[in-house]
Amino acid sequence: MVEPALIKAAQAGDREALVSLLREIEQQVYRTAYYLLNHEQDALDAAQEALIRIYTKIDSYEEKAQFRTWVQRIVTNICIDKFRRKRPSVSIDEHELVFQSGDNVEGEVLSAYASEEIREAIGKLPDHHRTVVVLRYLQDFSYNEIADSLGLPLNTVKSYLFRARQQLQVLLHDYQKGGVRG
Amino acid sequence: MNCPEVMELMQRHVDGDLNAEETSHMLDHVGHCPDCAAMLQRLLHLSHGLEQLPRVVPPYSLVDAILPQLGNGEAAGAETADETVALVPRERRAARSRREWMGRLSGVAAVAIVVGLLLVGGPRLFQLGVGNSQMDAGSAPVASPQKATTFSANADQHQVASPQADLNKALPDKPAATINPAPVPKSEPKSFGFGASVRGSKGLASSSSPSPTPALTKEPDQAAATPRATDPVQDKGGPVSPVDPTTPTPTSPPTMGIKRQNQAEQAVSPDGQWKAVLTDGQLQLIRMSDETVVYDSAPDSGTRSGLAWKDDSTAVTYTYTDAEGNSSNRSFLISEMKEQTAP
Q1: Which one of A75, A94, A116, B306 counts the least CB within 10 Å of its CB?
Q2: Hey, is the C-beta of B250 within 8 angstroms of any chain A C-beta?
Q3: How is domain A92-182 classified at the CATH fold level?
Q4: Domain spans of chain A?
């Protein structure tokens, strides 16, 4: 957690404080970008863009919001812009997905999901569902924190998260069956 | 309570959002509805998988990578400098096309003179005319490279300018002569551009070190073409990254901090209704009547060991050890379906 004093100093124009603040958050920023974009280079680009935006907009952060939800709002916005722009050219091939599972063929019905499988499945979710899942599981955000980050009503957050989990569960279940037979 | 309602309860249960009463409603239903029991198990399984996703970290320090672009604390300043760079090629293009046009025009004039001389004069004059036309035509290609050279020197200066300004600020007693942007050897500017951002440098002082960084191998001309502040990693981060950016790293990062001990420990409650299971230090609670997993602890950096049930089967206690190795006693209360620090 970022110290409030550090944020204040950064807002007051202390450049060193601002840089150490960025260092503290760079991993969490990258993690969100990585799982939202499902692509390392895109995530590096997006995370750096987010850090630069945080650097230039630090003045606009107000204490009534949690700092980490403010940070996540910035990075998720950048990522959503990126994948919306990219979407037409990106499609995950269903077959590719099935045949990639080489090392996990002999599984039980509920054998542990490989993180690779889960990442692929998250990549298939609609924008908002994906974002909610990433904030819930990669940032350990509560319903309220997700709602604050995304500017969505609490009930919408819950319904996105619940639907996302149902979709993931179906995708991964099918995937495992496909993996076992393929 | 019908299945869709229970579905919502199960979803909230996965997030630890139910109170004791809601939990017991859910468990009542799950106890006699095999479909919901299976769904609960799948949701818990999925949630567990999601919690286990690797906490990926960037292959290099992103802050170090963007430091040069943060300039003197004014991103606007950096943007202005970049615009200047962006303008140079356009000027150069205009200048070159003007030159080419002039060259062509002089060529046409020369041909006209030759034709005129041919018509009027003899073979002697013809030779003279050819000589003139060659000289004129030659002037255009000579002019272009000159212009191009000037441009690349300019671009190099801009490339250096922003980080140097930084450097100047960080080390105020550094002689001004060192930021002289006069023709820099071609390989040098890169060591400032992104070179200052290589992982390992701490803060401004070291990141502004003028020593060339061996990690950078990119051609300086490419760098001159892509120095935009708003798009910091146009160079794809390749040269600065110690890891090949095309290979996905997060599948087995050593930085995850998730322990995989694979030790299973279990204990059945005295009344035979519940079974607590520890796998990889994570707690699961299983109801014996239908083997349903009713609780699955969120994976954290800590581990649990030493399961012991209370005589009245209301709680199971164990030792919780966090990432730093600090141990504390915890218990899991059946009535609340959650873990807490033991009194």
Answers
A1: A94
A2: yes
A3: Arc Repressor Mutant, subunit A (1.10.10)
A4: 1-90, 92-182
